[in-house]
Specification:
This protein has 17 helices and 4 strands. The protein is mostly helical. The strands form 2 sheets. A two-stranded parallel sheet has the order 1-2. The chain has a two-stranded antiparallel ribbon with strand order 3-4. A hairpin with a 4-residue loop joins strand 3 and strand 4. Helix 10 packs across helix 12.
């Protein structure tokens, strides 16, 4: 067992997050104990079990390999599609493990794990350098009224909406629309994580171009040799599913009925976790396929908690037991997508104004 992390020994990624959160962003009190006391209390859950982390990694990759083989080589195309969807579901799980590794929550300081997850990230259009930069910013700025859009979906206030041009409103609505979720493999991952990142900082994010070339170059090679079907069934269908699921997870985690955003003067790191990050309630099967990422309010309070300890942290921390919730039920998905802007006067997300 790796000991719980003291403040001075936070993982590199989360040390960066902590450094980005000023002391003023921690309010003096929340419930029976201060926000600082609550943050300190969560450190006990950062103790990791390396054997469990390796088992999760190896077993998940084995399941992924089995489903990939089914998608590649099954003799009947509907069966290939079915295996592709199962592969996509498992890609989401491995991505959530990748996400935990990047936070330093599992397999800390393991060079082998770093290599495994680097290769995995490159193969799914998520270059680690790009992910760390945008995701660490997201954790340090989640639910701020201005500036929280980097690494997340933009949210504007009703007043900001009224000041936007028709073109700006259209772009804003498209980014937050179900269509962007459906096309996430192209919009969020191919363009956002790879092309845009590389064009913005070529030397820093050369891996964005490398990931793009790796994925789409493989498609070209497969087509040249008359086996485009291998790429289509073995990568595109699974990644289409995984990208849709992942993009929606990210959307619903911070855009849900009851969620809040705050002015920078009123924003605190703890409130952004407890009041602006959802608990996406799932059954045991989907909790496995998503590596407990539905406990997102717990994760945002302390990103160094390993995925397998998030339920325990929620159970043993009273302040985390009354979060805003959502599910994968159609009515809840509809409710999340109906949210458009934040009404400061009502202090809640509302739909788009009719005019």
């Amino acid at each position: 067992m790796t000991p719980a992390l003291p403040a001075a020994d936070l993982p590199v990624a989360d040390a960066a997050i902590a450094a980005a959160v000023p002391e003023a962003a921690v309010a003096p009190a929340v419930g029976p104990r201060s926000e600082k006391e609550l943050l300190v209390a969560t450190r006990v859950f950062t103790e990791e079990d390396k054997a469990r982390g390796w088992w999760a990694t190896v077993s998940s990759l084995a399941v992924l390999a089995a489903f990939t083989a089914g998608a590649l080589f099954s003799p009947w195309w509907p069966l290939r599609v079915a295996f592709g969807i199962l592969e996509g579901l498992t890609i989401v799980r491995v991505f959530c493990l990748f996400h935990d590794y990047q936070h330093g929550a599992i397999l800390r300081q393991s060079k082998l794990a770093e290599a495994i997850y680097w290769v995995f990230g490159m193969s799914i259009l998520v270059p680690p350098s790009v992910w760390r930069e945008s995701h660490n910013y997201h954790h340090a700025n989640n639910a701020k009224m201005v500036g929280s859009h980097i690494g997340s979906y933009p949210v504007v206030t009703l007043g900001m909406w009224k000041a936007m041009s028709p073109r700006q409103r259209f772009a804003y609505k498209m980014i937050r629309s179900p269509l962007n979720i459906v096309l996430a493999v192209f919009t969020v991952f191919t363009f956002g994580m790879c092309i845009s990142a590389f064009l913005r900082a070529p030397k820093k994010h050369w891996s964005g171009l490398a990931s793009f070339v790796l994925v789409y170059g493989t498609a070209v090679v497969a087509a040249v040799f008359g086996r485009f079907d291998l790429w289509f069934f073995g990568w595109m269908i699974p990644m289409w599913w995984a990208a849709m699921e992942g993009a929606y997870l990210f959307y619903a985690q911070h855009n849900f009925p009851g969620g809040h955003i705050a002015d920078r003067r009123d924003w605190t790191f703890v409130k952004a976790a407890t009041d602006s990050s959802s608990y996406l309630v799932m059954g045991p099967v989907m909790n496995w396929f998503t590596a407990n990422i539905g406990y997102h309010h717990v994760h945002h309070l302390n990103a160094a908690i390993p995925f397998y300890r998030l339920p325990e942290a929620m159970e043993k921390t009273p302040e985390l037991q009354n979060p805003g919730t959502t599910t994968f039920a159609p009515k809840d998905i509809k409710a999340c997508f109906e949210l458009g802007v934040f009404d400061v006067e009502q202090n809640k997300m509302v739909g788009y104004p009719s005019a």
